[in-house]
Design brief:
The chain has 5 helices and 4 strands. It has 111 residues and is of the alpha+beta class. The protein has one domain (2-110). Strand 1 and strand 2 (57-64) form a beta hairpin.
Length: 111
Amino acid sequence: MMQNAIQTTLYNALVLSGKMSLALYAHELREHVAYWRKGMRRDKDDFLVVVTEHSGDVAMLFITKKGELFINEDAREQLQRVWDAPGVYLSNMLRLIPTMAQQLAKTSLLM
């Protein structure tokens, strides 16, 4: 049941462009940004996306290869730009959201 609610919440935020929570970002994601940037440099990643959900709120961050940080709606927009071919963002989200919801039902952060 909880997984289905999380899946719906993620769908609303990530596919239907719903509002995201800055307070949730500040509470669960902000303190980890330096750690994630360091890992990106070490791994030579092009970008990093992190999504979290709590009590019907969603927060998201997107970090570029240059270390630029985008939060929530801006993060979603950046990911849409990366996956800019027609239908790719939607297709990827529809494929990823069920797994994201399953993992978030067990833990609080998803990378």
